[in-house]
Specification:
Structural class: alpha+beta
Largest sheet: 8 strands, mixed
CATH class of the largest domain: Mainly Beta
Number of helices: 4
CATH topology of the largest domain: Jelly Rolls
Distance between the termini: 50 Å
CATH superfamily of the largest domain: Alpha-ketoglutarate-dependent dioxygenase AlkB-like
Number of strands: 16
CATH architecture of the largest domain: Sandwich
Strand content: 35-45%
Order of helices and strands: EEHEHEEEEEHEEEEEEHEE
Bound molecules: 2-oxoglutaric acid, manganese (II) ion
Shape: globular
Length: 221
Amino acid sequence: MSGSLVFGVTRPTGREVNQQTLFRESEHSLLVRDGAVEYTPSFFSLPESEALFHELLETTPWEEDEVVFFGQRRKLSRKVAWMGDAGFTYSYSGTSKTASRWTPPLMLVKERVERRTDHRFNSCLLNLYHDGSEGMGWHSDDEKTLGRNPVIASVSFGAERIFKLKHRKSKEVVSVLLEQGSLLVMKGETQHHWVHTMPKTKKVSNPRINLTFRLFVGSPS
Ligand SMILES: O=C(O)CCC(=O)C(=O)O
Ligand SMILES: [Mn+2]
């Protein structure tokens, strides 16, 4: 037989794997190896999603995002907010942000995600993409303060957008349409072996809000 049979699931792995890890990490995964990404459409119903989109839009302390590019600070049109349990400072691309406190709609989403994933989160990065001309380049969420194999839970409201993951070595690409009200969970070794992106597109003219819940395990710096 070419595949390995794991609790009734046949995988054409062709190599020895830890069966329990395979079962736990990959049964519903979009990735066949080196991590696990699970997608749940309609995690929030359409009416819930529409209401949450508007509440998050209005109650979030949005800021202009900026990156350091060849030593120059550049503002991005995408808006961001960084929320959390306490005054965390989050550093990336040469810039740092201090967490604002949870708002009621964000707390509602966080608690629902925690129940579903059986995982606790102490912070959330929010992104507001006004339309398809705004996106996010290839990167991985591999900050040291997130620990070795972070669980990142991503919830989407508003416009549907394509999300892509690319394997660092093999360069294989996995694409998924992130629908309104969906939940995408990245876990296991995903951040070591895969990078991800939200590509720009001319096909989308509506705004989208994305929330990525994270757990800081080290002392944030
Ligand atoms: O907007 C998205 O779905 C991706 C966001 C993301 O990758 C991030 O905030 O690190
Ligand atoms: Mn990311």
